[in-house]
Structures are given as C-alpha cells and as structure tokens.
C-alpha cells in the first residue's frame, strides 16, 4: 500500500517525519533517480536515495527501540558539532541499520529527561503540537518572582515567536535571590522556559526536565546513563 514518502522513511527509522520533510525540501532525497517531492507516494518498491546513499528496506518488520536518557550538562542534541562538544549520541549504543532520533531537544546546559527512539513515527507523534504533551521542569531562578510576574507567566507573555505561557508554576523555596520552582509547559518551542523567565526579568541558573508526558525521570538513572523503556511505559507514553 502506498504512503507518503516522509511517513515511509520515518517508519524505517531514518528520522522523524519533520526532519525528513526538511531533507525533501532541501533536495536530499531522490526516488528512482528523480529528486523527490514533499507528499510523494511510495510503496517500497522504488529505489530511494538519501544524501547519495540508497535506503535499505528490511526484509522483515523492524523492531524499534526506545530509551530514556538522563542528559548531563554540556552535551548537545545534534549529531555533530563544529566546536567539538560532546553529543548525546556518543553515550547511546551503536545501531545496525537504524538511527537514533531525539524526541525534542534540551539545550547545552539543560539536564534531565530525553526520550530517544529508532521509530520516526513515534517521535513525530510525541513531538507534534497536536499531542499537547506536558513537559515538567525543575528550575532554579534568580530574580524577583512576585505574584504579578507569576500571573504574567501563567496568563501569557509575548515572545519574539508568539505568545507563550506556563500551564503551571509552583515556587517551592528559595534563599536570597535564588528560587526553586516547578513549571509545566505543553509545547516544545526552543528554550521556552528560559525565555519566559527572561521576559519577566528573571534568569534561569539551573534547568532540568523531569517529566515528558506520562514518563518521569527515574531517580536512580544517573546523568549520562540510559535504559530501555518497558512495555508498560511504552503503552502509556504512546496512548
């Protein structure tokens, strides 16, 4: 049965559907020696090439793998870095004829929960704006966070890419100008937590993601380590 090219390649684990759509727009994908078009239909019998390399179609249904990774500070979520910084993929197991896909990203200094999978369709479902999956963060903030600023952050703040807000914000404790908070957001815009606090005059000095959807960061999973998700965790996450 024919399906859209980006969905087909995501199902093979080459990347998330959004990533592959970008490759097609950039002319990096061809089908039967013709540059591919976005939305093109394929059935698997075609010769598909990505970045000059033919796509190998498995003779049996591929079993995907999904892990939870505790990202430490000073790692990037890209596959390579011109500055030579360590990437999260250096800490993950090597794959044969598959590719790790990060479900969202955490910036260089942000730590905590990352979901990494070989299933491009799963990654797309978890990241798509329509999923509205909650992301919860533990935050240390420097600055004044009074009732007025909290109300602003919960009702909506104008950022350079549109209005954004926290779904929930709880101030736990603090010493001096340092406050410990828990915040929840339902979108994955770049650096959204840091930018929201900056917009009301506060600075984030420590940021850790502790939950993504139904999945929480295990207390016994140390930074730089990973573990496979259980069948139960997978079913709850992809419900």
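^ Assign residues to that structure.
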């Amino acid at each position: 049965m024919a399906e859209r090219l980006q969905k087909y390649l995501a199902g093979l684990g080459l990347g998330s559907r959004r990533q592959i759509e970008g490759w097609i727009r950039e002319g990096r994908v061809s089908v039967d020696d013709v540059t591919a078009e976005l939305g093109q239909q394929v059935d698997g019998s075609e010769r598909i090439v990505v970045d000059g390399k033919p796509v190998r179609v498995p003779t049996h249904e591929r079993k995907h793998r999904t892990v939870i990774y505790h990202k430490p500070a000073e790692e990037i979520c890209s596959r390579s870095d011109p500055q030579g910084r360590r990437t999260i993929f250096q800490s993950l197991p090597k794959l044969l004829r598959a590719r790790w896909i990060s479900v969202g990203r955490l910036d260089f200094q942000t730590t905590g929960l990352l979901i990494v999978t070989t299933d491009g369709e799963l990654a797309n479902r978890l990241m798509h704006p329509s999923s509205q999956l909650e992301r919860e963060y533990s935050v240390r903030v420097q600055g004044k966070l009074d009732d007025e600023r909290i109300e602003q952050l919960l009702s909506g703040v104008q950022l350079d890419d549109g209005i954004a807000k926290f779904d929930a914000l709880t101030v736990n404790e603090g010493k001096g100008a340092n406050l410990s908070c828990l915040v929840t957001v339902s979108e994955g815009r770049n650096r959204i937590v840091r930018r929201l606090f900056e917009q009301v005059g506060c600075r984030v000095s420590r940021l850790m993601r502790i939950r993504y959807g139904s999945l929480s960061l295990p207390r016994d999973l140390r930074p730089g380590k990973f573990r496979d998700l259980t069948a139960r965790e997978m079913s709850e996450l992809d419900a």
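The helical segments are 5-11, 17-25, 120-127, 147-155, 192-199, 231-237.
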